[in-house]
From TrEMBL:
It comes from the Eukaryota. It comes from Toxocara canis (Canine roundworm). InterPro entries: Retrotrans_Pao. This is Protein kinase domain-containing protein. PANTHER family: ASPARTIC PUTATIVE DOMAIN-CONTAINING PROTEIN-RELATED, RETROTRANSPOSON.
């Protein structure tokens, strides 16, 4: 299962909010973990574009960076370095890049979208403050965000 959790960050008041969450069950066979992570990144990029489009009439999206975070270093490499990775990867790479996102690494422990795939129950998520607000560093200056190691 893979999931996405877009957050809206209000830097002025130092708060972030979960907008929605979405999960999908992957095909039964034939997909490597990096390809599944790439599909998750593709779905996430579409969700980010969707949120951005719907914030525009409210003038909330001006000067608002669209950041895709993944804990998959392979996927981040594929996105950062277009090339001959095969048709499957190249087609999804093109779709992701068309959404004009900044792609960043997130440590696996801070990747709250994975909470769903780790068998976290709805009751646990309901009372999980990080699920609703995101990792603590999300409201900090981007220079203080986790770096890829």
């Amino acid at each position: 299962m893979f999931s996405l959790t877009p957050y809206l960050v209000h830097r002025g008041c130092g708060q972030s909010f979960l907008i929605f969450a979405k999960s999908r069950i992957p095909p039964a066979q034939g997909m490597t973990i990096p390809r599944l992570e790439l599909i998750a990144a593709l779905i996430s990029s579409g969700a980010i574009a969707y949120v951005h489009r719907h914030l525009q009439p409210l003038q909330l999206s001006e000067n608002c960076p669209r950041i895709l975070r993944s804990d998959s270093k392979v996927v981040l490499q594929w996105i950062a370095n277009p090339g001959n990775h095969g048709r499957f990867v190249d087609n999804r790479h093109t779709e992701i890049r068309n959404n004009k996102l900044v792609c960043r690494y997130v440590p696996a422990d801070d990747n709250l979208a994975d909470a769903v795939s780790r068998r976290c129950s709805p009751r646990e998520l309901l009372h999980h403050p990080l699920w609703w607000k995101g990792p603590l560093w999300l409201c900090k200056d981007p220079s203080e965000w986790p770096k890829r190691k």
